[in-house]
Amino acid sequence: MTGERGWLRASRQGDRLIFEAGGAWVIGAAASLDRQIRAAGRPDARFARLDLGALTALDTAGAWLLRRLENELSAAGATVERAGLGDAFVPLLEQITESDAAPSLPDTRPPPYRFGDFTARIGKAVIRAGKRGAELLGFLGLVCIVALRTLRRPRRLRFATLVTHMEQTGVDALPIVGLLSFLIGVVFAFQGADQLRRFGAELYTVNLLGIAILRELGVMLAAIIVAGRSGSAFTAQIGTMKVNEEIDAMQVLGLDPIEILVLPRILALLLTLPLIAFYADIMGLLGGALMAWGTLDISIPAFLRQLRSPLPGWTFWIGVLKAPVFAGIIALTGCYEGLRVARSAESVGRLTTRSVVESIFLIIVADALFSIAFSYLGI
Question: Has this prediction a pTM greater than 0.85?
């Protein structure tokens, strides 16, 4: 009996459709059964009954055909009932029914490109940047309030923590800042001499190097390196404490995380970055002086005389005045992103990267504003 090929008969009793299925509904008979299902038609009816008592065999292909028939009848508006199915076939048909009822996979195809979508993304990005800027300004106000409160009671400031952060952000950064500044001075002097040699003005390489290093490159290079080292470290340290619920424990004990974690880091960077910028200036000029000595036969005393004579008095102090502003940007951004970390390691890495990118972007914006302001002031 199991070898009997599958068959399907359709009949009608009033407003009820009767579908009788029998034989072996297996993959070998799938093509024939599909033709019989299509030939049965879909006359209008309010009720449909599938009589499956004559089934002798059923596999996945046959179960899918039965399920497809039920779906088509339901789509036509009929209420479908199933009867006579043998106990041996129930699990397979139920499994097919459950998988058919599972939600379909989302459409992963990219939406068609529209210019309006591009402008909308730009607008959303601008709005997000504005909100982020407002939140950062609010965080700056909170830090200022805590700093004023600490000035009234200096004992609340943890000087041991302050010194530790000064060592980590200042002393530990000297090797990499010195090396890169020295190499920048070497490269800048070499490139400047190579271009000015065409006009017989090699000596003015010293002037070019002095203005570039003292006004821009020294403090900018120091700030970018510190942003990559210390700014990311601030975010990672505070973010890890957030993940480990140490900040929640501080708040439960009545301690202020801004006073304990943020303020010492900001003060440490405000004190150390001007000194690091000065060190970067010295190393950059040293690299340029050695390159000028080696390629232009300009001795060190002659280099110093040429460096001192044409430079305005504000040239050195311009770079030094930028350093505290850059330090505040780096420390505020690093601590702010650290406090925004969610309770996951992925969030720590993502916001650490974001803090470095935001710090460098804001440093460049601030430097551009300084340049515009100094130009108007004539210095």
Answer: no
